[in-house]
């Protein structure tokens, strides 16, 4: 079949048709132009002598409508098949779209058996259903939107840090430390047992490596995968998740740290609402405006105030609400509701609840650390942060009490040579997406979810 453009080439090899993404085609003003698109068929219907196709290529939620003459005789054209189409972009007479493609050539590149294909034409499949097909779910509208939003959210986080003078540090994935001291480590097994000469693990947090860098840079960040062998089947825990972590030097108060956490949260969310409005709309369609996360108002309470609030309502909880207890998910949810369903900072946790690096508030009679968590509606804890103990003697005593003085000799040295007050935090990326999209299960926010008893693909 020769191209009508008079170059003498067959349509398949004609270069007069401009390769264009569906997103660009949908907003193009260049009607009458000859274009080529490649993608997957989302719907097919025939009417009189025409076939009406909706084709997607991952660049936008909205598909491009393609109209093909029935006598093009297209073999294997079904829902889900892959196509390569050239034709003329025309103004659409329909209200539903501005443009449509009048096809001159439709080639089925890869057939798709609609009977065996787990997704059905025009059916709305639940996130739980599509989760069973991690190798195919990117082909659904909802997961396509999620992946575009996720990509844009990652870019927004990087932009926030870059725009505010943070230097990106690639912290290691393999490490010999358990930063959080919670023992939820994946150990790296090497065939040669002498390879590292020390036990090696997948990182649970890049914090300690960022603290090294905070000895030379005023503001650093990292954004990469972290791993925790938490034996949890909850809807907010993954074994492999991404974390955005920041470390800031010469910072003296939790307020200064909370300001950065709040700014990151607000700026990224505003970016998504403006840049991914259509994709975000797909998720927000299923939650009422009142349930959407607020990013304009944040609340602050101390841990001690939080315990007072919870104790007054202790009959509602399974877990204890005494001063000194860790806050459980049920407590976090209650506190968020109590504060008007807005994100809430909880500050100054009991000293003994926090890891060795948290700065001692040296207060009486209740001994607290300068640590803060940000709790958000629908999810609970989104960020954890603290001022770090920069005073050599205090840190030495605490590490010695835990028998970790030798393990962290290098960390102690950071306090010996030009130590400065500093602090930082980590924000769980998948929990962030859960919160802004109103997604119930964290497994629906990551391309390939890993959790206890689940490592498909
Ligand atoms: O509160 P966490 O444990 O803090 C740290 O790791 C600090 N070292 C970070 C720092 O200060 N640089 O974890 C931070 C966040 C949590 O608030 C949560 O959002 C997320 O990481 N997170 C998880 N997300 C998914 N699955 C899990 N198993 C998670 N564990 C933590």
TrEMBL record:
Keyword field contains Nucleotide-binding: yes
Class of enzymatic activity (EC top level): ligase
Gene: NARS2
Organism of this sequence: Pygocentrus nattereri (Red-bellied piranha)
UniProt-listed Pfam families: tRNA-synt_2, tRNA_anti-codon
Biological process per Gene Ontology, one example term: asparaginyl-tRNA aminoacylation
Assigned keywords, A-Z: Aminoacyl-tRNA synthetase, ATP-binding, Ligase, Nucleotide-binding, Protein biosynthesis
UniProt xrefs under PANTHER family: ASPARAGINE--TRNA LIGASE, MITOCHONDRIAL-RELATED, ASPARTYL/LYSYL-TRNA SYNTHETASE
Record protein name field: asparagine--tRNA ligase
Similarity comment: family membership: Belongs to the class-II aminoacyl-tRNA synthetase family.
Hydrolase is among the record's keywords: no
CDD domains assigned to the protein according to its UniProt record, in alphabetical order: AsxRS_core, EcAsnRS_like_N
One GO term describing the cellular component: mitochondrion
GO function terms (MF aspect): asparagine-tRNA ligase activity; ATP binding; nucleic acid binding
């Amino acid at each position: 079949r020769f191209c009508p453009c008079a170059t003498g080439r067959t349509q398949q090899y004609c270069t007069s048709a401009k390769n264009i993404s569906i997103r660009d085609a949908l907003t193009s003003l260049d009607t009458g132009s000859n274009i080529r698109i490649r993608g997957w068929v989302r719907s097919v219907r025939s009417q009189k002598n025409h076939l009406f196709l909706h084709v997607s290529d991952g660049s936008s939620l909205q598909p491009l409508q393609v109209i093909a003459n029935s006598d093009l005789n297209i073999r294997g054209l079904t829902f889900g098949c892959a196509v390569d189409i050239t034709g003329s972009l025309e103004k659409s007479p329909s209200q539903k779209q501005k443009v449509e493609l009048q096809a001159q050539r439709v080639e089925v590149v890869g057939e798709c058996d609609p009977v065996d294909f787990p997704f059905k034409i025009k059916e709305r499949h639940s996130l739980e259903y599509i989760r069973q097909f991690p190798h195919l779910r990117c082909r659904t509208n909802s997961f396509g939107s999620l992946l575009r939003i996720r990509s844009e959210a990652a870019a927004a986080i990087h932009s926030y840090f870059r725009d505010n003078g943070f230097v990106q540090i690639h912290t290691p994935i393999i490490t010999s430390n358990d930063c959080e001291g919670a023992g939820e480590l994946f150990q790296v097994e090497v065939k040669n047992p002498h390879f590292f000469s020390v036990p090696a693990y997948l990182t649970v947090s890049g914090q300690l490596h960022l603290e090294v860098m905070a000895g030379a840079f005023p503001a650093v960040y990292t954004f990469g995968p972290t791993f925790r062998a938490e034996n949890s089947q909850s809807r907010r825990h993954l074994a492999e998740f991404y974390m955005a972590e920041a470390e800031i030097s010469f910072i003296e108060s939790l307020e200064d740290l909370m300001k950065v956490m709040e700014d990151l949260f607000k700026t990224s969310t505003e970016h998504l609402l403006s840049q991914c409005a259509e994709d975000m709309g797909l998720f927000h369609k299923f939650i009422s405006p009142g349930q959407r996360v607020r990013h304009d108002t944040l609340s602050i309470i101390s841990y001690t105030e939080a315990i007072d609030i919870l104790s007054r309502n202790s009959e509602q909880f399974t877990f204890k609400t005494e001063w000194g207890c860790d806050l459980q998910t049920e407590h976090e949810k209650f506190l968020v509701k109590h504060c008007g369903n807005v994100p809430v900072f909880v500050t100054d946790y009991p000293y003994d609840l926090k890891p060795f690096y948290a700065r001692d508030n040296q207060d009486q009679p209740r001994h607290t650390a300068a640590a803060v968590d940000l709790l958000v509606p629908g999810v609970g804890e989104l960020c954890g942060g603290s001022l770090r103990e920069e005073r050599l003697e205090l840190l030495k005593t605490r590490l010695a009490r835990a028998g970790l003085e030798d393990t962290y000799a290098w960390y102690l040295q950071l306090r010996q040579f030009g130590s400065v007050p500093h602090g930082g935090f980590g924000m769980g990326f998948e929990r962030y997406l859960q919160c802004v999209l109103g997604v119930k299960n964290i497994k629906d926010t990551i391309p390939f979810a890993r959790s206890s008893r689940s490592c498909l693909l």
